[in-house]
Amino acid sequence: MKASDLTGVGLPLDRSLIEKVNALPGTELRALLSKLPDEIVADLVRQGDDEVAESAFEALEFRYRAPTKRYVSRGAAADYVDDINQETWISLWVELRNKQSFDPRLKFTSWMYSIARRRRIDWWRRNGPWVVGEDPIEDHQQRLESLAGDDSELWAEFHRALSHLSDERQLLLRLKYEEEFTIQEIADKMKMTIPTMMTKLRRAETLLRKYWFGEDDSETLNVKEEKGGMGQ
Question: Does the predicted model carry a pTM greater than 0.85?
């Protein structure tokens, strides 16, 4: 069986195709999985026999376990990141095998990151985004700076949180994290002294963290006030 035998058909896969995949020897199965798009591999986790499902799931883990670890690392203490990531992948396996929530006609990674986000929020609600004794702002800066430049899902969340802030705060954060300006360059660009700029930047980072990780509805009540104020 070739990858083209599966990529040209609609999802979910027809049962006759699933049976053909189930009959493949292990080495041929793994070679096939390496060439298939995420959504088909995920559908094979859902519909394949135990051997096919496990091999397909391993293929997804190989592709995405490191990205989900980076994703859940934002807002969780470093000592717990592996545990949250493990919970994420257990949830992905259970939901796929039980045919829950995932629609193979939609993008797999969007669904995957939504599961990771829920596991991260579950941990955050139990423990808070940082353990006692850590500096939240410094930790958040480190996590932002460690993001991969091409990790579109993580940057999409950054931009969603950013949209709640005033224009001035958005510009400060974009200069630091997107444009990678130095402190001096940001101060020059904003026509501020370095102490003034640093005060404003720290306030912007604090608010960004609240909108990024917070689930409290009371936070959203202040959106208009935040967007309206340039110098708060």
Answer: no
23 and 97 housed in the same domain: yes
pLDDT in single tens digits along all 232 residues of the chain: 888 888 878 889 999 999 999 999 999 999 999 999 999 999 999 999 999 999 999 999 999 999 999 888 876 677 788 999 999 999 999 999 998 778 888 889 989 988 988 888 788 777 755 443 344 444 455 455 544 445 566 678 788 888 999 999 999 988 887 777 778 888 899 998 888 888 898 888 888 878 876 634 333 334 333 444 444 4
CA-to-CA distance for 40 and 137, rounded, in angstroms? 41
In this prediction, residue 136 carries a pLDDT of 44
Q: Are residues 211 and 174 in the same domain?
A: yes
| DSSP secondary structure string for all residues of 152-217 | HHHHHHHHHHHTTS-HHHHHHHIIIIIS---HHHHHHHHT--HHHHHHHHHHHHHHHHHHHH---H
Would you call 227 helix, strand, or coil by DSSP? helix
Pick from 17, 23, 50, 16: nearest CA to 36: 17
Cis, peptide link before residue 195, omega less than 30° from 0 = no
- Residue ranges making up the domain that contains 78: 4-127
Do both 119 and 174 map to the same domain?
no
Per DSSP, 101 falls in state S
Closest CA to 231 of 212, 191, 206, 203: 203
- End-of-domain residue from the set 74, 94, 127: 127
